[in-house]
Write a structure and sequence with these properties.
Blueprint: H1 10-41, H2 48-66, H3 68-93, H4 103-125, E1 139-141, E2 147-149, H5 150-172, H6 174-184, H7 186-191, H8 196-218, H9 229-243, H10 248-268, H11 276-287
Antiparallel strand pairs: 1-2
């Protein structure tokens, strides 16, 4: 048997690339929030995946309350804001007390937040999965034989927009420059009379907002269930390490590699698809132990 006959045709492979890119943009939302949190706060926020889950559930509630196609677009605007406010409560009430404590305590706290919000989610929304109707129907023809769901165009556009927005924020705004300075030397920032606690709160809210945005965006394309943030958190941690700590574009590139790699894994060997992200991370870290791009914080 000719080996080439076993390979998918061009249209199938191209479709998988675009599907993988769509998934990669959602992974990027969670991963870039995590890398900002680690880079500035020096905290590995295990709860970031939970805020992603809360973004999806909150979007579902708002979409059901408003109703119709407009419900999702309202949810897309409001749900990430709700999640970011909830993140501020967690940061001010719990995490702020542990910034100067051992890393193990920070990990235990964020893991406890995961367990807490999983139980709260069960109480509020129950254990049954939820679904949101896709706001954009139909397909878009990209090439002669390649079609993509119209909504995926929104996902494809969201990643670059967020990446560019974060780059502009960190490099061309006063708050962003202060954030970078705080990550480098918090004591000096405090000595200059800048309240680093406010900066930390802003960064944590931004991290939660991005996770909530990812959850709201993915909601129409998947079942919304309790615990849905665990898998994406594991992949997000890998992306942060592989991309380079604090490097937005490194995180973006690593997300694309992971998303497309996992997509082809599902196509080629569905039973072993879960292994592909870890295999990709292993190979990339062997080749580039410090990450694809240089750490900036």
């Amino acid at each position: 048997m000719d080996f080439l006959t076993l390979l998918p045709d061009f249209s199938t492979m191209t479709s998988q690339v675009f599907i993988g890119l769509s998934r990669a943009m959602i992974l990027f939302m969670v991963a870039v929030g995590l890398t900002v949190s680690i880079g500035v706060l020096r905290v590995i926020n295990f709860a970031n995946g939970t805020f992603y889950m809360l973004g999806a559930f909150t979007a579902w509630s708002i979409a059901m309350w408003v109703g119709g196609t407009a419900g999702f677009w309202v949810a897309l605007l409001v749900a990430p804001l709700v999640v970011s406010v909830l993140g501020l409560v967690v940061e001010a009430g719990l995490l702020r007390r542990l910034y100067n404590r051992p890393r193990l305590l920070q990990l235990l706290l964020t893991y406890a937040v995961v367990l807490l919000f999983n139980d709260i989610t069960k109480i509020i929304w129950g254990v049954d999965f939820k679904t949101i109707e896709v706001p954009l129907k139909g397909f878009v023809t990209l090439f002669s034989n390649v079609s993509l769901p119209s909504y995926n165009l929104i996902l494809l556009a969201s990643g670059p927009l967020v990446a560019f927005g974060l780059w502009f924020f960190t490099n061309h705004t006063m708050v962003g420059k202060i954030t970078r300075a705080t990550a480098t030397d918090r004591e000096m920032v405090d000595a200059l009379g800048i309240n680093s606690k406010k900066i930390f709160a802003i960064v944590f809210m931004l991290s939660c907002y991005l996770a909530g945005l990812g959850g709201a965006l993915i909601a129409p394309t998947t079942n919304i269930v309790v615990g849905m943030g665990i898998t994406i958190l594991v992949n997000a941690v890998l992306v942060v390490v592989v991309g380079g700590l604090g490097n937005i574009w490194g995180t973006f590139l690593a997300s694309i590699i992971f998303g497309v790699g996992e997509s082809f894994g599902l196509l080629i060997a569905p039973r072993f698809a879960i292994v592909f992200p870890f295999a990709i991370a292993t190979v990339l870290l062997i080749l580039r132990p410090t990450g694809i791009m240089k750490s900036v914080w």
